């Protein structure tokens, strides 16, 4: 079987976001942020135009997805160590004795257990897959998303489709 890959990693596929990570079962990082960069690889058969997928469309879709995270506080909804409370237009995240309150409009609640680069990469892949599912006639065999949180430090999520 023949297969091709396309790769997109543009300067505008970035998002600035705050987060903190729990780890070791009892530890929690200080609140901080990153200037994340995102790259995407799609693998699959060629379509009638001899494309795996149109670069212009892929860049537009990824830009829309990363823009939803840009200049936001990222909070995990599935972390058993972090309690989230939404009221009066604010979200309060509590970990042990720490309590952070943010305007709701500045927060993105993510359906992940922790805001690690690995989990962000998987989340972005799932978001893109939802968009690709709406594109009829596509033959994408695999998706790969790389999230770089600082130069030379990134996580990659890969999913084989079908």
Question: Secondary structure elements and their pairing?
Answer:
Layout: E1 4-8, E2 14-19, E3 22-23, E4 27-28, E5 32-44, H1 55-67, E6 72-76, E7 83-87, E8 90-95, E9 98-103, E10 107-110, H2 117-133, E11 140-150, E12 153-160
Parallel strand pairs: 2-6, 6-10
Antiparallel strand pairs: 1-5, 2-5, 3-4, 5-11, 7-8, 8-9, 11-12
Radius of gyration: 17 Å
Strand content: over 45%
| Amino- and carboxy-terminal Cα gap | 15 Å
User: Per CATH, what is the topology?
Assistant: Tetrahydropterin Synthase, Chain A
Helical stretch tally: 2
**Main pleated sheet:** 7 strands, mixed
User: CATH superfamily name?
Assistant: 6-pyruvoyl tetrahydropterin synthase/QueD
| Overall pLDDT confidence | 95
Which CATH top level class fits?
Alpha Beta
**In terms of per-residue confidence, which ranges show pLDDT below 50 for 5 or more consecutive residues?**
none
**So what's the overall shape?**
elongated
> What's the architecture, going by CATH?
2-Layer Sandwich
Question: What this model shows, in words?
Answer:
19% of the residues lie in helices and 45% in strands. Helix 1 packs across helix 2. Strand 8 and strand 9 form a beta hairpin. The mean pLDDT is 95. Strands 1, 2, 5, 6, 10, 11 and 12 form a seven-stranded mixed β-sheet that branches. A three-stranded antiparallel β-sheet has the order 7-8-9, with no helix packed on it. By secondary structure, the protein is an alpha+beta fold. The longest helix is centred in the last third of the chain and has 17 residues. It has one domain: 6-pyruvoyl tetrahydropterin synthase/QueD (Tetrahydropterin Synthase, Chain A, 2-Layer Sandwich). It is built from two helices and twelve strands; from the N terminus they run E-E-E-E-E-H-E-E-E-E-E-H-E-E.
């Amino acid at each position: 079987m023949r297969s091709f890959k396309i790769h997109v990693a543009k300067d505008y596929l970035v998002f600035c976001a705050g987060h903190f990570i729990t780890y070791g079962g009892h530890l929690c990082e200080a609140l901080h942020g990153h200037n994340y960069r995102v790259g995407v690889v799609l693998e699959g058969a060629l379509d009638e135009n001899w494309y795996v997928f149109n670069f212009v469309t892929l860049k537009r879709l990824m830009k829309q997805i990363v823009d939803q995270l840009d200049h936001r506080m990222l909070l995990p909804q599935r972390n058993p160590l972090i309690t989230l409370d939404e009221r009066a237009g604010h979200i309060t995240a509590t970990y042990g004795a720490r309590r952070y309150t943010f305007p709701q409009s500045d927060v993105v609640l993510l359906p992940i257990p922790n805001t690690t680069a690995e989990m962000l990469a998987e989340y972005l892949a799932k978001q893109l897959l939802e968009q690709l599912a709406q594109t009829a006639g596509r033959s994408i065999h695999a998706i790969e998303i790389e999230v770089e949180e600082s130069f030379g430090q990134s996580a990659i999520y890969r999913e084989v489709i079908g």
